[in-house]
Amino acid sequence: TEWVWMGGLRPGSDFLTSTLRVIQEIVGCRVRRDPPNSTERYTRWINQLTPEQLLTQVFTANGPTVIMPTWFCSRAWFSHVGPFDEGGQGVPEDLLFFYEHLRKGGGVIRVDQSLLLYRYHPWAATHSVLETTIWTHRVRFLEEQALPRWAAFTIWNAGKQGRRLYRSLTAASQRKVVAFCDVDENKIRKGFYCHEDSQERPKPRIPILHFRAARPPFVICVKLDLTGGAFEDNLRSLHLQEGQDFLHFS
Protein backbone atom coordinates (compact mmCIF):
# COMPACT_ATOMS: atom_id res chain seq x y z
CA THR A 1 0.00 0.00 0.00
CA GLU A 2 1.31 3.46 -0.88
CA TRP A 3 0.98 6.01 1.92
CA VAL A 4 0.47 9.76 1.84
CA TRP A 5 2.12 11.83 4.55
CA MET A 6 0.10 15.04 4.92
CA GLY A 7 1.79 16.86 7.78
CA GLY A 8 5.02 17.72 9.50
CA LEU A 9 5.72 14.35 11.11
CA ARG A 10 8.85 12.50 10.04
CA PRO A 11 7.88 8.84 9.90
CA GLY A 12 9.90 6.17 11.66
CA SER A 13 9.77 2.42 11.18
CA ASP A 14 7.82 1.75 14.41
CA PHE A 15 5.18 4.27 13.40
CA LEU A 16 4.78 2.82 9.91
CA THR A 17 4.63 -0.74 11.21
CA SER A 18 1.61 0.19 13.32
CA THR A 19 -0.22 1.56 10.26
CA LEU A 20 0.30 -1.24 7.75
CA ARG A 21 -3.09 -2.78 8.46
CA VAL A 22 -4.90 0.53 7.97
CA ILE A 23 -6.84 1.10 4.75
CA GLN A 24 -9.62 3.64 5.41
CA GLU A 25 -8.16 5.40 8.43
CA ILE A 26 -6.46 8.67 9.07
CA VAL A 27 -3.58 7.93 11.43
CA GLY A 28 -2.09 10.56 13.72
CA CYS A 29 -0.24 10.77 17.01
CA ARG A 30 0.10 12.68 20.24
CA VAL A 31 1.97 15.99 20.20
CA ARG A 32 4.04 18.31 22.36
CA ARG A 33 3.41 22.04 22.24
CA ASP A 34 6.01 24.76 21.85
CA PRO A 35 5.86 26.93 23.93
CA PRO A 36 4.83 24.22 26.44
CA ASN A 37 2.15 26.35 28.14
CA SER A 38 0.38 27.43 24.94
CA THR A 39 -3.13 26.07 24.24
CA GLU A 40 -2.98 23.84 27.33
CA ARG A 41 -6.64 22.78 27.23
CA TYR A 42 -6.49 21.95 23.54
CA THR A 43 -3.27 19.97 23.94
CA ARG A 44 -4.74 17.94 26.80
CA TRP A 45 -7.83 17.25 24.69
CA ILE A 46 -5.95 16.15 21.60
CA ASN A 47 -3.66 13.84 23.60
CA GLN A 48 -6.19 12.31 26.00
CA LEU A 49 -9.12 11.33 23.77
CA THR A 50 -10.00 7.66 24.02
CA PRO A 51 -10.16 5.57 20.82
CA GLU A 52 -13.97 5.87 20.92
CA GLN A 53 -13.85 9.65 21.41
CA LEU A 54 -11.75 10.04 18.27
CA LEU A 55 -15.08 9.51 16.49
CA THR A 56 -17.63 10.81 19.01
CA GLN A 57 -15.95 14.19 19.60
CA VAL A 58 -15.64 15.21 15.95
CA PHE A 59 -18.32 17.93 16.35
CA THR A 60 -16.47 20.14 18.86
CA ALA A 61 -14.89 23.52 18.21
CA ASN A 62 -11.47 21.87 18.55
CA GLY A 63 -11.72 20.43 15.05
CA PRO A 64 -10.21 17.13 13.87
CA THR A 65 -9.54 14.69 16.69
CA VAL A 66 -6.02 14.03 15.43
CA ILE A 67 -4.21 17.12 14.21
CA MET A 68 -3.45 17.49 10.51
CA PRO A 69 0.38 17.86 10.77
CA THR A 70 0.47 14.24 12.02
CA TRP A 71 -1.85 12.69 9.43
CA PHE A 72 -1.07 9.62 7.35
CA CYS A 73 -3.46 7.75 5.07
CA SER A 74 -3.18 5.45 2.08
CA ARG A 75 -2.88 7.16 -1.29
CA ALA A 76 -5.90 5.25 -2.55
CA TRP A 77 -8.00 6.50 0.36
CA PHE A 78 -6.75 10.07 -0.06
CA SER A 79 -7.80 9.95 -3.73
CA HIS A 80 -11.18 8.52 -2.75
CA VAL A 81 -11.88 11.26 -0.20
CA GLY A 82 -10.71 13.96 -2.58
CA PRO A 83 -8.11 16.72 -2.53
CA PHE A 84 -7.90 19.50 0.00
CA ASP A 85 -10.02 22.56 -0.72
CA GLU A 86 -7.55 25.05 -2.16
CA GLY A 87 -9.90 28.01 -1.81
CA GLY A 88 -7.19 30.04 -0.15
CA GLN A 89 -6.97 32.03 3.03
CA GLY A 90 -9.95 31.64 5.32
CA VAL A 91 -10.85 28.09 4.20
CA PRO A 92 -10.61 25.43 6.96
CA GLU A 93 -9.19 22.86 4.54
CA ASP A 94 -8.15 20.32 7.17
CA LEU A 95 -11.61 20.37 8.80
CA LEU A 96 -13.38 20.02 5.44
CA PHE A 97 -11.16 17.09 4.42
CA PHE A 98 -11.69 15.45 7.82
CA TYR A 99 -15.48 15.77 7.54
CA GLU A 100 -15.46 14.29 4.02
CA HIS A 101 -13.27 11.45 5.26
CA LEU A 102 -15.85 10.67 7.95
CA ARG A 103 -18.78 10.97 5.52
CA LYS A 104 -17.19 8.25 3.41
CA GLY A 105 -16.83 5.89 6.35
CA GLY A 106 -13.25 6.61 7.31
CA GLY A 107 -11.88 5.87 10.76
CA VAL A 108 -9.42 7.65 13.03
CA ILE A 109 -6.44 6.12 14.82
CA ARG A 110 -3.97 7.82 17.16
CA VAL A 111 -0.54 6.41 17.91
CA ASP A 112 -0.10 7.06 21.62
CA GLN A 113 3.41 8.41 21.38
CA SER A 114 4.36 12.07 21.18
CA LEU A 115 6.05 12.21 17.77
CA LEU A 116 5.57 15.85 16.82
CA LEU A 117 6.61 19.17 18.29
CA TYR A 118 3.64 21.37 17.42
CA ARG A 119 4.69 25.02 17.39
CA TYR A 120 2.19 27.75 18.28
CA HIS A 121 2.47 31.35 17.15
CA PRO A 122 -0.14 34.09 16.67
CA TRP A 123 0.59 34.42 12.94
CA ALA A 124 -0.35 30.84 12.08
CA ALA A 125 -2.60 30.42 9.03
CA THR A 126 -5.29 28.82 11.21
CA HIS A 127 -6.03 32.24 12.71
CA SER A 128 -7.17 33.51 9.29
CA VAL A 129 -10.23 31.24 9.40
CA LEU A 130 -13.24 33.05 10.83
CA GLU A 131 -14.98 31.44 13.80
CA THR A 132 -18.31 32.00 12.06
CA THR A 133 -17.12 30.00 9.04
CA ILE A 134 -16.10 27.06 11.21
CA TRP A 135 -19.34 27.32 13.20
CA THR A 136 -21.44 27.04 10.03
CA HIS A 137 -19.57 23.93 8.86
CA ARG A 138 -19.86 22.34 12.31
CA VAL A 139 -23.61 22.91 12.60
CA ARG A 140 -24.26 21.51 9.14
CA PHE A 141 -22.10 18.45 9.87
CA LEU A 142 -23.96 17.89 13.16
CA GLU A 143 -27.31 18.08 11.38
CA GLU A 144 -26.13 15.77 8.63
CA GLN A 145 -24.32 13.10 10.65
CA ALA A 146 -25.82 13.04 14.16
CA LEU A 147 -29.27 14.59 14.46
CA PRO A 148 -31.06 12.36 11.90
CA ARG A 149 -30.78 9.37 14.24
CA TRP A 150 -32.57 11.18 17.07
CA ALA A 151 -36.31 11.91 17.01
CA ALA A 152 -35.85 14.51 19.77
CA PHE A 153 -33.00 15.89 21.85
CA THR A 154 -32.09 18.35 24.63
CA ILE A 155 -29.52 21.13 24.35
CA TRP A 156 -27.33 21.19 27.47
CA ASN A 157 -26.69 24.90 28.13
CA ALA A 158 -29.48 27.44 28.27
CA GLY A 159 -26.97 30.25 27.93
CA LYS A 160 -25.39 31.98 24.97
CA GLN A 161 -23.84 28.96 23.24
CA GLY A 162 -26.90 26.73 23.60
CA ARG A 163 -29.22 29.42 22.26
CA ARG A 164 -26.83 30.15 19.40
CA LEU A 165 -26.87 26.50 18.39
CA TYR A 166 -30.67 26.41 18.49
CA ARG A 167 -30.94 29.53 16.31
CA SER A 168 -28.40 28.09 13.83
CA LEU A 169 -30.36 24.88 13.27
CA THR A 170 -32.76 24.39 10.40
CA ALA A 171 -36.45 24.61 11.25
CA ALA A 172 -36.74 20.82 11.05
CA SER A 173 -33.92 20.36 13.57
CA GLN A 174 -35.30 23.08 15.84
CA ARG A 175 -38.56 21.17 16.09
CA LYS A 176 -36.62 18.22 17.55
CA VAL A 177 -35.37 20.31 20.50
CA VAL A 178 -37.62 19.39 23.43
CA ALA A 179 -35.75 21.33 26.13
CA PHE A 180 -32.69 23.20 27.25
CA CYS A 181 -31.02 22.10 30.48
CA ASP A 182 -28.63 23.83 32.84
CA VAL A 183 -27.42 24.11 36.43
CA ASP A 184 -27.97 27.88 36.67
CA GLU A 185 -31.02 28.44 38.87
CA ASN A 186 -31.64 31.88 37.35
CA LYS A 187 -31.98 30.40 33.88
CA ILE A 188 -34.10 27.51 35.14
CA ARG A 189 -36.47 29.89 36.97
CA LYS A 190 -37.24 31.64 33.69
CA GLY A 191 -38.98 28.43 32.69
CA PHE A 192 -38.55 28.63 28.92
CA TYR A 193 -36.62 30.16 26.03
CA CYS A 194 -38.69 31.99 23.41
CA HIS A 195 -37.19 32.15 19.92
CA GLU A 196 -38.25 35.68 19.05
CA ASP A 197 -36.91 35.56 15.48
CA SER A 198 -38.92 32.48 14.55
CA GLN A 199 -41.43 32.80 11.71
CA GLU A 200 -43.67 30.23 13.37
CA ARG A 201 -46.83 31.28 15.17
CA PRO A 202 -47.06 30.91 18.03
CA LYS A 203 -43.34 31.40 18.53
CA PRO A 204 -41.57 28.35 19.96
CA ARG A 205 -41.18 28.32 23.75
CA ILE A 206 -38.58 25.75 24.74
CA PRO A 207 -38.60 24.60 28.41
CA ILE A 208 -35.47 25.15 30.53
CA LEU A 209 -34.90 22.32 32.99
CA HIS A 210 -32.35 21.29 35.57
CA PHE A 211 -30.03 18.77 33.93
CA ARG A 212 -31.25 16.00 36.24
CA ALA A 213 -34.84 16.59 35.12
CA ALA A 214 -33.97 16.59 31.42
CA ARG A 215 -34.07 13.57 29.14
CA PRO A 216 -31.26 12.44 26.85
CA PRO A 217 -30.03 12.47 24.20
CA PHE A 218 -28.11 15.70 24.77
CA VAL A 219 -26.16 17.97 22.48
CA ILE A 220 -23.76 19.51 24.99
CA CYS A 221 -22.75 23.13 24.48
CA VAL A 222 -20.56 23.36 27.59
CA LYS A 223 -16.81 23.59 27.11
CA LEU A 224 -14.79 20.81 28.64
CA ASP A 225 -12.02 21.29 31.19
CA LEU A 226 -13.17 24.74 32.33
CA THR A 227 -15.18 24.17 35.52
CA GLY A 228 -12.66 22.41 37.74
CA GLY A 229 -14.34 19.11 36.94
CA ALA A 230 -17.83 20.16 38.10
CA PHE A 231 -19.47 19.78 34.68
CA GLU A 232 -17.69 16.50 33.97
CA ASP A 233 -18.81 15.14 37.38
CA ASN A 234 -22.42 16.12 36.64
CA LEU A 235 -22.30 14.37 33.29
CA ARG A 236 -20.72 11.20 34.70
CA SER A 237 -23.38 11.06 37.42
CA LEU A 238 -26.02 10.37 34.75
CA HIS A 239 -24.27 7.18 33.60
CA LEU A 240 -24.78 7.90 29.92
CA GLN A 241 -22.98 6.54 26.87
CA GLU A 242 -21.14 9.08 24.75
CA GLY A 243 -22.14 8.92 21.11
CA GLN A 244 -25.48 7.32 21.93
CA ASP A 245 -26.90 9.43 24.76
CA PHE A 246 -24.91 12.62 24.26
CA LEU A 247 -22.50 14.44 21.96
CA HIS A 248 -20.16 17.30 22.75
CA PHE A 249 -20.57 20.33 20.48
CA SER A 250 -18.55 23.01 22.31
From TrEMBL:
Q: Which InterPro entries match?
A: Nucleotide-diphossugar_trans (IPR029044)
Q: Which SUPFAM superfamilies match?
A: Nucleotide-diphospho-sugar transferases
Q: Which domain of life is it from?
A: Eukaryota
Q: Which GO terms describe its molecular function?
A: glycosyltransferase activity
Locate the transmembrane regions by residue number: none
What the entry lists under Gene3D superfamilies is as follows:
Spore Coat Polysaccharide Biosynthesis Protein SpsA, Chain A (3.90.550.10)
Q: What protein name applies here?
A: UDP-GlcNAc:betaGal beta-1,3-N-acetylglucosaminyltransferase like 1
